[in-house]
């Protein structure tokens, strides 16, 4: 049998164009090449890049000594100056606790390093000097509590370190195609996902640090339910019920996905399966999760809901409303699209089953009505909603509706498609017709559309 030859590199060219064929010389050429990429002229183990050593040994304390030295130099320069507590607070937050931020976003700092930096900041706060200590009236732990709770809001560096690494762990999940994630995946979690990867002997300090940040992330992350095909019912965290975010089951041996609990024909949850597999507490939590209902219109594959309305030139106004009954189990949706002459182009109502809040009901009503406007090719310019929280979720980063971010993203995309419009808040007194349509939805379990309504049918304020 012929023996296969292994591919190998016989020689390399150095920066001067000379051929190097020995193993030592080729290793030096490779080292020089990668050093040039990172702007380092001497790739020795003692090299520093952004105050971080290029090598991490067994003694992590030695690697991060430079951080404590920089903090000490800053504080030593302030020892002879007299600052008010307000200025000391600014210096500690903006300088002392900001110095280790970059290393803490990559590595897990030793607890001793975090304690040394906090001790130096603590002495500076109480104006203690060498050979001259002053009384510390409040402990550092109490100073690290928020100002609203009687503290000063200083950072607990160890907890802040883990929070920064948890942010990096979240980036691995949210940007899986980045180069860094691909390198880590090949080495540490090639056959599993990042959340299930284990620590192995001999792994790098960076991977150990990311795994530490992942521990914090695992306490609060939760899957967003869309089609549910990739979410395991009893193993993944997807139910809005802290602290486990996992359902309790009568038969834990089953391995099914969330898509198996969704009734596609009814565009909602399969109540029979929920009753069979889950306890009532988990069922109520699942019913509070909006799924991807009514996405057919958004994909342009909807059935004709009735008589097509002829397009009328001009700017149209959209009003939507949501009403909840039966202890948050039923949600009625109502919407109208009308022109400047108070003519109703189309009105509709629909009934949804689920334990939604009023604000989430308004989001669902807004998404359905915008998809209806897109289907009819209506140039809507003035969507009006009777929920200030919905307006905040669309145009502000601070909102209590972060759990349904995917619905917000759908609405933002639809707003640009139907006429690049902006939603406005309107009081309930100015949204009477949509409110009445939402109430009418409870009298029927199916969707209703009324094209070309006249003013004699409904009365409403303009």
TrEMBL record:
Source organism of the structure: Dipteronia sinensis
GO MF, one annotated term: RNA-DNA hybrid ribonuclease activity
Name of this chain's protein: RNase H type-1 domain-containing protein
Domain RNase H type-1: 321-439
PANTHER family reported for this sequence: REVERSE TRANSCRIPTASE DOMAIN-CONTAINING PROTEIN, REVERSE TRANSCRIPTASE ZINC-BINDING DOMAIN-CONTAINING PROTEIN-RELATED-RELATED
